[in-house]
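Hi Q.,

Before the meeting this afternoon, I wanted you to have the 1,3-dihydroxyacetonephosphate prediction in hand. No need to reply - just skim if you have a minute. The sequence and ligand are here:
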Amino acid sequence: MRIPIIAGNWKMNKTIAEARELVGALRDELTRVAADGKVQIVLCPPFIALAEVAARVKETPIKVGAQNLFWEVKGAYTGEIAPPMLNEVCDYVIIGHSERRQYFGETDEGVNKKTRVALAHHLTPIVCVGENLQQNEAGQTAQIVGAQVRAAFTEIARDDARRCVIAYEPVWAIGTGKAASGAGANAVIGLTIRGALADLYDEATAQTIRVQYGGSVTPKNVAEFFAQPEIDGALVGGASLLAADFIAICQAARK
Ligand code: 13P
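Predicted structure with the ligand bound:
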């Protein structure tokens, strides 16, 4: 049984003061939702608010994640954040988000390096994959997403791979209000992503790794995704900034 995992990716939103306010509005209800371990909830604020958010959910089942990390552990890399720094404040890290690939030049090779270093430092990677609109329209979804999964998991041992979470986020669905269909996302996750994992490892590993859907998830459409057998939760952007919406999405994951 894969336990669903809902992560809120706050992206470049919320000052420390605003983060404190949002976590204050989320904490009690999300604690109730996650209390019996039937759903895992992760908040991913900007780096600068990580410690503040972590301190405020410390005695709760709510977990915290970063939105990125660097693959070296220390040194002259101005502006970067190293895995041991994250170890002090969080358990999860989003890797290879399409915005990082698109605006900051992240490559499949970099995603693999970051995933390996995160695992080596006992962080749980949330590895993002997904095709863009042009690739989707050209019928290249399986080819692109399959290649992203194979690249991300290069030289990662089976037991380490099993600790990862994958987020399938079609780029055309992110922040557009045009979510994928539940059945469409289910097919990509079941056939392409689990198929690639079964090729890389084995069927049992492919069935163990949790795969979220992300892209315009809202309280209105979330039930359609959670009803799908291959989808193990959601990576939520815009709706994770609204306390009532994020709570509703997390509650829906229990059903
Ligand atoms: P939206 O939910 O705003 O579409 O963002 C999805 C996303 O990119 C989460 O990482």
